[in-house]
Amino acid sequence: MKTVIFITALMLIIYSGVFISGILQEPDHVIEKTINIEVPEAVVFNTMIDFNHYQDWCVNLVENRLSSDYTSRQVRYSLWPIDLILEEKVEINLQKRTIVTRQAASNPSSYLHEFRNDIRLSSLSDGTTNVIWRVSYRVEPIYAKFLNMALIKPQLEEVIEQNLQGLNQYMNPQ
Hints:
This protein has helices at 2-24, 41-48, 142-171; strands spanning 28-37, 61-66, 72-77, 84-93, 98-105, 112-123, 129-139. The chain has 174 residues and is α+β, with helices and mostly antiparallel strands. It has one domain (28-171): Alpha-D-Glucose-1,6-Bisphosphate, Chain A, domain 4 (2-Layer Sandwich). The chain has a seven-stranded antiparallel β-sheet with strand order 1-7-6-5-4-3-2, with helices on one face. A hairpin with a 5-residue loop joins strand 2 and strand 3 (72-77). The protein is elongated, with a radius of gyration of 20 Å. The mean pLDDT is 87.
């Protein structure tokens, strides 16, 4: 009997902790990673705006369907336990060397809303390129906030890191 009471109390404490952490967690999340690539900025930028070849260096990208006018795309990333599918608007700014993709429509099966990729490039004095990849998104329901903390955010951090490393290896084959 004491074991049942102990297990019940322990489960109640764990459930309460998860619930409280979900309430206290902010709904908006930002992940930002940076890499320096030993290639001139124009070369890196031209590679990154060639959406037809993203699969060459984005290891988790399973599908990338770009519209004929290059203003929107549908992407599918392989994440565990389900794939992340996004309908995105694409904005390329040639002068600022930025690429922005924004979630065009909410996916009812996704906990992530207002998903946005911001990629900025800048030339460094030694001729290399600094690439800053920033992902921002919103998570609403309390249980989704817990999933985000435990599963989604760590995976997205890993995806961005792998994309930057993949881009670096693609630009500098050894």
